[in-house]
Amino acid sequence: MSHSEVTASDPGTLIPGSDAVTHHRISRPRRLFRRIAPALGIAPFIIYSFLGLGIPAIAVTYYAFQKETGGWTFSNIHFMLTGEKHVFLTGFENSIKLGLLSAVIPGILGVFIAYAIQTSNSNILRRLTATAAGVLANFGGINLTFMFVATLSSTGILTYWLADIGIKLSSIGFNLYTFSGVLVVYMYFQLPLMVLVVTPALGGLRASWREAAENMGASSWQYWLRVGIPVLLPSILGGMLLLFGSAFAAYATAETLTLGLISLSPIQIGNYLNGNVIAGQTHVGYAIAFGMLVILSITMILYSLVRRRASKWLR
Amino acid sequence: MAPLVGEVAEAENEVVPSFSTGSSKRRRRVRWWRGVVLVLAGAFFLIPVYAGVKFSLQNNEHHFSFQAYESLASAPGFTAALTLSLKIALVTMVVSTLLMVPTAIYVHVRLPRLRRLLDVVTVLPIVIPPIVLIVGVLGVYPLWAKSSPYLLSFMYVILAMPFVYRSLDAGIGAIDLKTLTEASRSLGGSWSKTMWRVILPNIRPALLSATVLTLALVFGEFTMAQLDIWQTIPVWIAQFSVSSDGPIQVAASMIGLLGTWVLLLLVVSIDRSESRRNRKKLRSS
Amino acid sequence: MALKKIKTALLAGATVASLVAVGITANSIAASGATSVNWAKVTHLTKTGSTSMAALVTAAKKEGTLNVVALPSNWANYGNIIKGFQKKYGIKINSENPEGSSAEEIQALTSDKGRSSDPDVIDVGTSYAVTAKTQGLLAPYKVSTWSEIPAGLKQAGGYWFDDYGGYVAIGCNTKTVKVCPTSLKAMLTEKGPTYKIGLNNSPLTSNSALAAVEAAAVVNGGSLNNVAPGVKFFATLNKNGAFVNTIASATTALSGATNVIIWWDYLQSNGGIKVPGWKVVLPSDVLLGEYYTQGINSGAPNPAAARLWEEYLYSVTGQNLWLAGGARPAELAFMQAHGTANKTLVAKLPILPAGQTPLFPTTAQISAAATVVNTSWAAQVGK
Fold first, then answer.
1. Do residues A219 and A268 share a domain?
2. pLDDT at residue C275 tops 50
3. 3-state secondary structure of C96
4. What pLDDT does residue C29 have?
5. Are residues A41 and A166 in the same domain?
6. Is the pLDDT of residue B17 over 60?
7. What is the secondary structure of A227-279 as a DSSP string?
């Protein structure tokens, strides 16, 4: 072990006189290097993240402010905000609504499901559900859409089964192709996502804590209020953020399910950049993408504020 | 903090003899409620699968038939798509491990203050929607990158980052990394030996979760692969969406779903039997 | 003496060098003589010589491959066209991304540049060909039968040319629907669940679905320039419960989710929708058609094969193969006048309704319609 390693990683362990010796012997630039050297360890990660996240985000922002033929312009942004009967603003509004509802409802339900799985004594069940959750969280697109058309459309098997026991979906007002229908379909991948995120945290709730609480006479409700939820809250909030992002950004499922009947931002981006009818207006697509980035940045800021508040409240 | 598919979780749920009365009643209540939740959840996920499978098991005359699955076996491009997906998955998993494991460990050991930063950066892939990412990438990346399917691997590592990092973070946090490292180092082990012999085996469950999730992601990701024009399995399956044969299209998606699940179960089972073997080895040595 | 030796040596060296140089030059001339034609720059064939059909075939066979993109095998009989070409010339066709959209094809031209799968030819909606030309992505080429293509179906300089087209048609499951609608107006009167009408995709992004909306506009008091009534048509359908907002395909036709589909005639008939009892008719109240367009990639990796492919497509064989797919090839009028169109196949085409003049929207009209639909569809139909 060299002197420098001692000083850098083990401030508690002192070899008498070493500090004084190293201070005089090492020149300033070397000392500076020694200071930032540890941070270089995560340099590969930072560089990779910049290449994979930073550059695309910058590119999208850049193109949002460029004309089709080159040159700076605000017209794309202006068009996005005011043009076309506010259809893009409606898109943002719908996407945010979908994101929030798709974060909270499956978020809460997911905690219950994860808990039910975690507290089972069957290892096999846990392995099956863990892998299934992984697969389902990434499932979507036309495959998922048709499965639900076969289940909950007017000719779907579940519709018929429910009608057999007297529940007519059409009279309740449920339609697979409306907002509520989209929410139900989104649950199919949002619930597993939440289960994936929350399960590790649930594993951290040791049975010994529960026993200790019971021994002290705490009811189930009190246990959850004082011990369970506070421990789980960071994970739950984090999970809901993931769910919001996932629902807000969902593309393939939204596209095949709504077919444009509900204005949603990711689909509008796709229409302008990748569709079959609107040619040569790609920069509008970039402008919408830029709008999504702005909304999500605001979401991140709000999230960190909530996290900080929550951790303060939990102390 | 127990990882996703670890055995550590078992210990947590052992039946500990309780000295307080009424707890057995409570446990019974929990069990009943738990069953209801599991049945409802199971129904929600399995009914659509049943609907899909039922539809795929017929021919165009509405008679029961395996014809869809038979034609799928000889479907053109399936093996090519499967090979491509496997290659991309392998590269993704390797790069992800090489990038994230040292970073996570390093941050835990040397730079605990930077954990906040890492938390933020690894959540960014969710903040930036995949459609936006791929659109940005295709707009500016150089030609040699766009010509390679491993550009998808590069981006999948990013997409998997939140899950991989969380998994590793939980796993590393569960083992007292500092003590282990110090112990190993004071016994004369070099950094690489410490990493290989001490740290990695202890975070094995977390590493497994991360791998499994990455695999699931690669076999389910559609948007980026389609826009980058590579025929991965999800894209190949979706290609049948305009097929003139309905049951074949749905059969393809069912196979995709169940096949990925089986693949993940295989990976998990192999790991379990290997770790059991290792433990036996340790015990007998 | 030494000087003389040096002079001799130099002379010898120079001779050898020049001989080698001449040899190399001669060799390269001989070699390039065989490939002196840069097929990427050839704009039309000549009867004889280095740019004749025979030379093209040789050069294409030498290239050995052809890359195509977004050509589903059951779309206008492309499956058999590809097979026929491969068989006739022994050139392997790589069919990439068969379900791709026109936009993806254009994107492939740029982003696939470094890949061996870079498309040689494209088949896209006309507005996309127009954009591709302005971006310099297309190479001009006039096929041998250029004069047989109507003037309105090609770009004067040869940068793009229409290949086949069809009309908006009504497909119906005669086994489950008592009275199949024979006109678009008839769909408005019946309320669901009798009719479950579907479009093949979202009209905000799909050419064929947009055409259905344009056709609806014409019957609902609008025109090709005023597509808003078409949106209102579907709003009414949705309110009546007759519109099914999902991707209508063979799958939904078989499952019963959609028993009526509005789509291109050539995609629904000829086994396009393999449902027993599926009948395709052209609506009696509007005849709206569109042609798709061919183009050659200016940076095609196999320029000779690309041109040979176009020659094949526009030969009598190729055009009749499209006819077999239920599509109307660009040269159909000429072929019918000269008796080269396969009469049985022509007879199989859906009967043109009496008293209807075919309408062909221009790219400007399509573009304007796309804008209207993109902005009002969700608000109007989604209510």
1. yes
2. yes
3. strand
4. 46
5. no
6. no
7. IIHHHHHHHHHHHHHHHHHHHHH--HHHHHHHTTSS--HHHHHHHHHH-SS--
Tokens linked to A255: 């596209």
pLDDT single digits (tens) C3-30: 666 666 666 655 665 555 554 544 444 4
Give domain status of residue A11, yes or no: no
* A84, part of any domain: yes
Whether A10 maps to a domain, the answer reads no
Using a CB-CB distance cutoff of 8 angstroms, which residues of chain C are in contact with residue A276?
101-103, 125, 128, 205-207
Q: For residue C155, is it left (φ>0), alpha (ψ between -120 and 50) or beta? A: beta
Q: What percent of chain B is modeled with pLDDT above 70?
A: 85
Same domain, A286 and A173: yes
| Of residues A115, A118, A144, nearest to B9 (C-beta) | A118
* Cβ-contact C324, C87 below 8 angstroms: no
**Residue C284: its pLDDT value, please?**
92
The pLDDT of C289-310, averaged and rounded, is 92
Interface of B with A in 168-187 (CB under 8 A): 170, 185
Q: How many domains is chain A partitioned into structurally?
A: 2
Tens of pLDDT along C332-342? 888 988 988 88
Residue A242 lies in a domain: yes
Of A260, A268, A258, nearest in space to A291 by CA: A268
Contact residues, A window 176-235, toward B, CB-based 8 Å cutoff: 187-188, 191, 196-197, 199-201, 203-208, 211, 214-215, 217, 220
Residue B55 contacts C where some CB pair is shorter than 8 Å:
yes
Does the model's ipTM exceed the 0.90 cut?
no
Tell me the range of B16-20, B141-145, C30-34, C260-264 where mean pLDDT is highest. Answer: C260-264
Can you tell me the distance from the alpha carbon of C211 to that of B227, in angstroms, rounded to the nearest whole number? Answer: 25
Full domain range(s) for residue A31: 19-62
Q: For residue C382, what pLDDT band results from cuts at 50, 70 and 90? A: confident
Tokens of B234: 């999800």
Percent residues over pLDDT 70 in chain C: 89
3-state SS, residue C328: strand
CATH code, domain with A178: 1.10.3720.10
Does A174 lie in the same domain as A35?
A: no
Contact in structure between B240 and B35 (CB atoms under 8 Å): no
In this structure, the answer to whether residues A98 and A170 fall within a common structural domain is yes
Per-residue pLDDT band for A307 (boundaries 50, 70, 90) equals confident
Which B residues, 148 through 167, put their C-beta within 8 Å of a C-beta on chain A?
154-155, 157-158, 161-163, 166-167
**Nearest Cα residue to B11 out of A121, C81, A303, A158:** A121
What is the CB-side half-sphere exposure of residue C277 using CA atoms within 13 A?
15
How high is the pLDDT of residue C87? 93
DSSP strand pairing (C197-199 vs C278-281): unpaired
**Given A85, A262, A268, which is nearest C382 (Cβ)?**
A262
